Amino acid sequence: MTLLRSHLAGSWQTGTGDGRPLHDAVTGEEVARISADGLDLAAALEYGRRTGGPALRELTFHQRAGLLKALAGHLREHREELYAVSARTGATPGDSRFDVDGGIGVLLAYASKAKRELPNDTVVVEGAVEPLGRGGTFLGQHVLTPRHGVAVQVNAFNFPVWGPLEKLAPAFLAGVPTLIKPASPTAFLTAELVELIVGSGLLPDGAVQFVAGSLGDCFDHLTGQDLVSFTGSASTAQILRSHPVIVRNAVRFSAEADSLNLAALGPDAGPGSTEFDLFVTALTTEMTVKAGQKCTAIRRAFVPREHVDAVVEAVSARLASVVVGAPGSDGVGMGALASLDQREEVRRSVKALRDAGRLVFGDPDRVEVVGADADRGAFVSPMLLLGDPDRAEPHEIEAFGPVATVLPYDSADRLVEYAARGQGSLAGSVVSADPGFVREVVLGIAPFHGRVHVLNARDATESTGHGSPLPQLVHGGPGRAGGGEELGGIRGVLHHMQRTAVQADPDSLVAVTGRWVTGAQRHDDGVHPFRKHLEELRPGDCLVAGPRRVTQADVEHFAEFTGDTFYAHMDEAAAAANPLFGQRVAHGYLVVSLAAGLFVDPDPGPVLANFGVDGLRFLTPVRFDDELTVTLTCKQVTPRDSAGYGEVRWDADVTRQDGESVARYDVLTLVAKKEGA
Q1: How far is CA 483 from each of CA 254, 447, 469, rounded to the nearest angstrom?
Q2: Which of 229, 230, 348, 369 has the smallest C-beta neighbourhood within 10 Å, fewest atoms?
Q3: What are the residues whose beta carbons fall under 8 Å from the beta carbon of 274, sequence distance 6 or more?
């Protein structure tokens, strides 16, 4: 049987020796063998640092996002190939879509978020400028730049496509190359994924590497610029986290580990209610999708004591209708576990759980299977237990398969206490339409959970479900769950970057960040900035316009025209009694409107549209006969690679005759590129 190939240092390589056999989870047949013996992982890390990293760092965030989007499109065209291999891991067609399409969806989501939320640049500017001196000549600014290392990802067996892609996306966007190490039982599917990625030719050389087999001495060669992202058991995470090199070099380490996730039914959600049915459906779904082999699957189902019998009866009835068997066979709703070893592990865990409760549905040693041999394939029955929440076992033992334990509770306080005994979880669901109960439980269990999902009749039609990590939200959890964070939108990208505080004069800060800041030089070449195309604009280009005197007639006309007759603008006596004004003042929005009238160039030109105002603050009142001047300064230019225009952010500073600012804000415009650009 052929050994799986690794892709390292720019070429496909094969380990030495006979390798470890990998089996079809459904038939038990040998699929391939796996070995990384003899492969030079130190050279692979160095190749990523010296070849993949520089190539990625030359690209802007938007360019990297474009490559992720193109890769997602390529993988989507080859989904059927991935589905076919996925079936050999025991996954049903629905399971395969969850894994494959979910991973592709993460690529698309991150590509979209990067275009919207990151600059078309290679550096992220974080937060506001911090004045460090009284004269405005010494400033501080946090910036984030890509680490000059490799993101080593160690994945679990349950999501051989989604797992690598959800780790790859934020690292790639950050400009950091990736080394993928899959779990052995399903590595043949990840190998197919990497074949497609490399074969696409879309990504820079060295941006993605793949090792089929053990990491060997890889960790011995990590530097302080590298990162490790681990998914798997808490015990393995502890071993890896304490590796001497990781400790000595302070290698950034993130772990997603075991998790006894919960779902809690509210006292209001009795039999016959929509919420009761939602709870039953969610629990059975989480038990059977991927045969319960999900790090987010519900393991502890907390139910008000008075509803326990009804929940057990309803869940058992649904589980009885689940057909177990070969993926694709008629009526099959649950496939096999990933391996025979995993089946034995589930059986051992169920045996331990039965010491603290009783089995109310299923049999760990017997299951009816459609389309396959129940002994040769890694099949197991879905199993529901009724446990004692005061015993330790339900809060400490995870059966990583189609297994859940119903646990009664008598009050919200006790529920929160029981939840904490899980010592940290990835996800929890609260199923209730009672806002008071939801608030008490969500805030009570939040310190022990990375994500809390509230489910009721109002959000059920749009809910993505208990067990679906989303690229926009953090995936991870405290304590036993590993203490790490993945995904979380742009947070996941920034995790792969170094935050640095830069202290400098304003002009140096502009040079570093590409953004104009107050105190930096302005440039007025006599050409109205709105007459310049995108490529011609530079941070610091400015226009000074005014003055414009504000009259009582202006204020009264604006009030009549808009309907804004607030007393501070129209009632002399009431305005005089206002401690902030002491007399009638102009509308703030009148000030902004007059400023626009001063800086706008009326003729058609490169400026296509004004699409917003950010950070508007009215700093001091404008009174009758004050004279306003506006200084408009180009602050940031963001090209859009796929469009004939880009975004320009302008600093608008409106001052009165004594030089004091009365309003400050950013104006956002779309500006055309030169024709053909």
Answers
A1: 7, 12, 16
A2: 348
A3: 433, 456, 457, 460
Residue located via tokens 């629990």: 283
Instruction: Tell me how far apart the alpha carbons of residues 62 and 60 are, in angstroms, rounded to a whole number.
Output: 5
Distance in angstroms (rounded) separating the CA atoms of residues 220 and 251: 11
Q: Is 654 helix (H, G, I), strand (E, B) or coil?
A: strand
Helix, strand, or coil (residue 555): helix
Q: Which residues pair with 227 in a beta bridge?
A: 151, 252
3-class secondary-structure state, position 291: helix
Residue 652 CB: number of other CB atoms within 10 A? 22
User: What are the tokens at 408?
Assistant: 């009664």
d(CA 570, CA 552): 10
Q: Which helix (H) or strand (E) holds 349?
A: helix 340-354
Q: What residues contact residue 538 under an 8 Å CB cut-off, 6+ apart?
A: 523, 634, 637
Bridge partners of 649, per DSSP, are 636, 668
**Under a CB-based contact definition with an 8 Å cutoff, are residues 226 and 200 in contact?**
no
Residues of the chain with pLDDT under 50: none
DSSP state of 50: I
Q: What is the model's pLDDT at position 1?
A: 62
Structure tokens at 10: 């720019």
pLDDT digits (tens, 9 = 90+) for 81-111: 999 999 999 999 999 998 999 999 999 999 9
Residue 281: CB partners within 8 Å, gap ≥ 6? 318
In the 8-state DSSP scheme, what is residue 586?
Answer: -
Catalytic choice (218, 295, 542, 634): 295
Task: Please answer whether residues 271 and 303 qualify as being in contact, where contact means their C-beta atoms are separated by less than 8 angstroms.
Answer: no
Instruction: Please say whether the beta carbons of 53 and 226 come within 8 A.
Output: no
Number of H helices, E strands in the chain: 21, 29
Cβ–Cβ < 8 Å for 471, 169 = yes
pTM attached to this predicted model: 0.91
Left, alpha or beta for 540 (phi > 0: left; psi -120 to 50: alpha)? left
Which residues, 6 or more positions from 480, have their beta carbon under 8 angstroms from its beta carbon?
Answer: 234, 257, 258, 259, 260, 422, 423, 424, 425
**DSSP secondary structure letters along 59-108:** S-HHHHHHHHHHHHHHHHHTHHHHHHHHGGGT--HHHHHHHHHHHHHHHH
**Residue 295 a catalytic site member:** yes
Angle, CA 528 vertex, CA 523 and CA 532 arms, to 5°: 90
pLDDT score recorded for residue 233? 87
User: Which residues, 6 or more positions from 73, have their beta carbon under 8 angstroms from its beta carbon?
Assistant: none
The catalytic position among 166, 192, 256, 275 is: 256
629 sits in which H/E element: strand 627-639
Q: What phi, psi does 620 have (nearest 5°)?
A: -155, 150
The pLDDT score that the predictor gives to residue 351 is 94
Ordered DSSP codes for 101-144 = HHHHHHHHHHHHHHHHHS-SSS-EEEEEEEE-STTSS-EEEEEE
Q: 229, 153 in Cβ contact below 8 A?
A: yes
